[in-house]
Amino acid sequence: MMYGIRPSAPLQRVLKAALNAGWKLSPQFGDDYVYWIDDKRFTAANNDEVVEAVDSLETTAVAIERNDLRVWIEKDTDVLPTVETWHLYLWANKYEFGHRKDARTQAEARARVQQYLDLVELAVVETDPDYGFGKFGSIVSPKVVPTVDELLSARVLDVFWLNVFDSAAVERMGRERVLEAPAWEVRELETGHVMLVASDNPFEPADEWADGEEHVAEYLDVD
After folding, report:
1. Verdict on whether the full-model pTM lies above 0.90
2. Superkingdom of the source (predicted)?
3. Which residue from 69, 141, 189, 222 has the least number of CB within 10 angstroms?
């Protein structure tokens, strides 16, 4: 998720909301409340101490889990090829969503995708991003990452597996048009954002959704 103007305590707010929604902190070293933060081990006494600390540190990565799904939350990472925007990064290992080589059915994999999307929705409602996207793999072309000016002007440069459009971008493209996009799932949020998910799985999509991103991009007339 990306922000033209830095939000107040974004990671702290998302982490607190996630814990309230039933997610749990996932220890990084097998011990409760032990994390690798700012290039050093950080040990907390309880959940509240972790939540209190995360936004006071420069580089933070906190793992949370629910129903055996593990997701990392990071702020201002170096994944994106631009340093001028503030961003929050929610990611999971690709095998969290796999099913063909893993001991889970396609339906079970889709349930895990839905759980991840629920967490993204929670983060969007908590932090009000200008834009958000999600894809398989971490390499992103600079050509499709919006600058601050493009964020604030609601310009959409590309379509990914997961797309989070703020109300300005949605109105610019036409709300009804966006809501009727040929995507696997479209969610209209209470904030006015729309989450558009091109296919049922970012890692191993079903055959009928394999070209979901291309179909949505063509529908929205995004090059």
Report:
1. no
2. Archaea
3. 141
pLDDT string in tens for the chain (223-residue length): 888 888 888 888 999 999 999 999 886 655 565 665 555 566 666 778 777 777 666 557 788 999 989 999 887 655 555 556 788 889 898 888 887 666 678 889 999 999 999 999 999 999 999 999 888 765 555 556 666 676 666 677 789 899 999 999 999 999 999 999 999 999 999 999 999 999 999 988 999 999 999 999 999 998 7
Using alpha carbons only, what angle is made at residue 141 by residues 58 and 211, rounded to the nearest 5 degrees?
Answer: 120
**How many domains, the chain?**
1
Residue 214, domain extent: 2-220
Phi, psi (degrees; rounded to nearest 5) at 40: -155, 160
State the Cα–Cα distance between residues 19 and 47, nearest whole angstrom. Answer: 9
CA 56/CA 85 separation, integer angstroms: 19
DSSP 56-86: TSSS-EEEEEETTEEEEEEES-S-SS-SSSE
C-alpha torsion sign, points 107, 108, 112, 118: positive
Main-chain phi, psi angles of 158, to 5 degrees: -160, 170
At residue 9, φ and ψ (nearest 5 deg) are 45, 55
β-sheet bridge partners, residue 165: 131, 194
CA distances from 77 to 88, 97, 120 (A): 8, 23, 17
Phi first, then psi: give them for residue 26, nearest 5 degrees: -110, 110
β-pairing verdict for 86-91 and 2-3 = antiparallel
